[in-house]
């Protein structure tokens, strides 16, 4: 394959991967990789796009901030674009940045700050009074979280200096103490534990119920004064001290540095204390202190030339593999788990790490008794990086997954990808428990208080065997209170109330809860937007499903297989009979079928509508929206800065339309 084709494939793969991780981080508040790993991907993509401009695309994640705006929260346009910083990963890169600044400005004073790991917000004050608070969103438009920010006790609601207008940028976070309190509450009610401080802080600030913010005790550090009408500052450090005098908690223990040695010492000192802080950080920021010097340096197309963010590598520690055990998931997948000698890592004690499958174990050659190096993927999930074979004890045997299910003793088979082992017994205790707790989980039916421990207690006591039994629990209220297996009267009533509430969920949550292979919550949402009820979903053909966004041949096949199973159809009938909603709450209202059989691709920035809005219009007229151009594409709706998709459409002779032409088509 030619070099240009290989480069193009790598660029497209990076874009897709970064968009996926953007969604996990910004919209789901549930990252899967570390910031360090994410930033490495972003740097690689930017460098490839710079070296190969013929593959430029205005839709590239390098052209925008990663977050989108939640539909439930009011959209607010930023007065000052909320930009990100250039990342660096080595001492040499930081030094190159400082030398470049000095070459242009001469002697320069820098400020080094901790990069707080939370959710960025912009605060607006009119005549000294807080009037708005906005998340970063996509950098141009964010979400209003004003009511929630009013619940943050450490945030001043009025300034001592009543400036006509002030705009201040900060980072909302949660302390370790409040994080541990929140997880204690989750344990008490049998809920899913939160993974880290950043995730719960971001998720809490975007809640629609502001009382939750007060209950969880969020805090805020401010780190930049964007606008100050009626007041002139000469330096960033001066503005920080002014904000401190107004009652803000400013970015803690910032350092003023006059040469590179002082800068690097500050970065190392911050790194050394990183995991002992009450708040999370994901790097250090080096900024030019003089505001006039910042104006002279200006911006690139994406980042300021007067600042750089240094990203620390994930913390790594050695520990011992004391045992390897196996678990059975809701789909029957058998997963090996390393039991580790407890070690303090990235702010918490780690005692377990998933080993994924037999191939993973074989590739890394992990054995009981081995000394291994571990880190947290995404600063959250412990993983084994490598084995220190020089420390391997004599006689350590290679580990093999069992031939039979370790829970029920039933037969196992290799899954389609060949890498994973699966129990195929319908009566497997482990599968049934996992299926029950997954059905009730936050991403699915969201039955608060119905965690794995509660599911197991109810299953072992004979109250539930299959999913529909959950909706018959209310008739056992007195027994459950008397038995005390899930708590006292209040705990039982709270659980039964949550179960009753879940009956009203849309079918997207119900489909997610079924745990259909290759069908997650996003795919379930697409189904609920395109089908009026569960019956229509159940009777849809594979060809019809493949017409939808996010569905390929494999997912469509798995859907049809699940819904043609007589056992699954009986389960759904039982749920309907128990009053569980079977109607879509998200269906796109069909106007007519003028776009039936037509596939659209959207690219560039449209003058007066978002791509999401255009997509909904297309689907309301029976059309389909795809993320990539192919011979099956009927139209490419192109806005400003349309990139490689437009070029490909031109080469294929596909009809290209503007927003104006699109609006003519739907008149």
Kindly describe this structure:
With 667 residues, this protein is of the alpha+beta class. Strands 12, 13, 14, 15, 16, 17 and 18 form a seven-stranded antiparallel beta sheet that branches. Helix 22 links the parallel strand 19 and strand 20. Helix 12 packs across helix 13 and helix 14 runs antiparallel to helix 15. The longest helix is centred in the first third of the chain and has 25 residues. It is globular, with a radius of gyration of 27 Å. The mean pLDDT is 86.
Ranges where pLDDT stays below 50 over 5 or more residues in a row are none
What is the rounded Rg? Answer: 27 Å
Task: Report the mean per-residue pLDDT as an integer.
Answer: 86
Beta content comes to: 15-25%
Question: What keywords describe this structure?
Answer:
5-stranded mixed β-sheet, single chain, 667 residues, 7-stranded antiparallel β-sheet
Summarize the structure.
The protein is of the alpha+beta class and 667 residues long. Helices cover 37% and strands 20% of the residues.
Provide the fold topology.
Blueprint: H1 3-27, H2 35-51, E1 75-77, E2 86-88, H3 91-105, E3 110-116, E4 119-126, E5 129-135, E6 141-143, H4 146-149, E7 165-173, H5 176-188, H6 197-205, H7 210-216, E8 219-228, H8 236-245, E9 255-257, H9 260-273, E10 281-288, H10 291-297, E11 307-310, E12 317-328, E13 333-345, E14 348-354, H11 358-364, E15 371-377, E16 381-387, E17 412-414, E18 421-423, H12 429-439, H13 452-460, H14 477-483, H15 489-502, H16 507-513, H17 521-530, H18 534-538, H19 542-546, H20 553-564, H21 566-577, E19 599-603, H22 611-620, E20 624-626, E21 635-638, H23 644-652, E22 655-657, H24 659-665
Helix pairs in contact: 1-2, 12-13, 14-15, 16-17
């Amino acid at each position: 394959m030619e070099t240009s084709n290989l480069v193009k494939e790598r660029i497209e793969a990076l874009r897709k991967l970064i968009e996926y991780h953007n969604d996990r981080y910004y919209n789901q508040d549930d990252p899967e990789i570390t910031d360090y790993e994410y930033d490495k991907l972003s740097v690689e993509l930017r460098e490839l796009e710079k070296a190969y401009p013929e593959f430029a695309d205005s839709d590239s994640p390098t052209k925008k901030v990663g977050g989108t705006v939640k539909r439930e929260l009011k959209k607010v346009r930023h007065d000052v674009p909320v930009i990100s910083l250039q990342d660096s990963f080595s001492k040499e890169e930081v030094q190159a940045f400082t030398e470049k600044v000095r070459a242009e400005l001469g002697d320069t004073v820098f400020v080094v700050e901790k990069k707080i790991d939370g959710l960025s917000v912009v605060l607006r004050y009119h005549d000294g009074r807080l009037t708005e608070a906005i998340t970063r969103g996509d950098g141009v438009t964010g979400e209003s979280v004003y009511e929630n920010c009013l619940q943050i006790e450490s945030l001043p609601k009025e300034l001592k200096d009543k400036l006509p207008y002030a705009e201040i940028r900060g980072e909302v976070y949660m302390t370790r103490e409040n994080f541990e309190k929140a997880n204690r509450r989750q344990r008490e009610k049998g809920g899913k534990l939160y993974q880290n401080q950043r995730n719960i802080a971001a998720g809490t600030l975007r809640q629609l119920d502001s009382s939750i913010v007060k209950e969880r005790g969020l805090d805020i550090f401010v780190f930049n004064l964007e606008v100050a009408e009626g007041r002139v500052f000469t330096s960033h450090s001066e503005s920080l001290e002014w904000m401190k005098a107004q009652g803000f908690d400013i970015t803690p223990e910032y350092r003023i540095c006059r040469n590179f040695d002082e800068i690097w010492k500050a970065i190392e000192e911050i790194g050394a204390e990183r995991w002992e802080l009450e708040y999370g950080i994901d790097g250090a920021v080096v900024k030019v202190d003089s505001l006039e010097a910042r104006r002279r340096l200006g911006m690139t197309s994406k980042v300021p030339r007067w600042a750089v963010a240094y990203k620390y590598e994930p913390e790594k520690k050695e520990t011992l593999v004391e045992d390897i055990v196996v678990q059975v998931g809701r789909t029957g997948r058998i997963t090996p788990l390393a039991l580790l000698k407890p070690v303090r890592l990235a702010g918490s004690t780690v005692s377990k790490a998933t080993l994924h499958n037999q191939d993973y174990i074989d590739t890394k050659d992990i054995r009981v008794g081995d000394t291994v190096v571990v880190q947290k993927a995404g600063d959250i999930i412990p993983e084994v990086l490598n084995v220190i074979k020089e420390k391997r004890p004599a006689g350590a045997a290679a580990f093999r997954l069992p031939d039979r299910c370790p829970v029920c003793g039933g037969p196992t088979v290799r899954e389609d990808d060949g890498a994973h082992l699966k129990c195929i017994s319908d009566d497997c205790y482990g599968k049934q428990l996992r299926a029950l707790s997954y059905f009730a989980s936050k991403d699915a039916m969201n039955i608060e208080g119905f965690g794995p421990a509660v599911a197991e207690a109810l299953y072992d006591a004979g109250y539930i065997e299959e999913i529909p039994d959950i909706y018959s629990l209310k008739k056992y209220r007195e027994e459950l209170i008397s038995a005390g297996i899930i708590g006292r009267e209040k705990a039982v009533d709270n659980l039964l109330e949550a179960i009753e509430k879940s009956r009203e969920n849309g079918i997207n949550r119900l489909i997610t809860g079924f745990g259909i292979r290759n069908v997650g919550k996003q795919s379930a949402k697409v189904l609920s937007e395109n089908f009026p009820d569960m019956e229509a979903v159940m009777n849809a053909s594979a060809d019809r499903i493949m017409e939808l966004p996010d569905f390929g041949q494999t997912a469509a096949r798995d859907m049809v297989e699940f819904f043609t199973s007589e056992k699954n159809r009986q389960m759904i009938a039982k749920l309907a009979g128990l009053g569980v909603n079977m109607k879509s709450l998200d269906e796109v209202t069909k106007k007519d079928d003028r776009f039936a059989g037509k596939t659209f691709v959207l690219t560039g920035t449209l003058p007066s509508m978002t791509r999401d809005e255009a997509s909904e219009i297309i689907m309301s007229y029976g059309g389909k929206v795809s993320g990539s151009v192919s011979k099956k594409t009927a139209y490419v709706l192109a806005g400003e800065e349309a990139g490689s998709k437009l070029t490909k459409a031109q080469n294929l002779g596909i009809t290209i339309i503007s927003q104006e032409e699109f609006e003519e088509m739907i008149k």
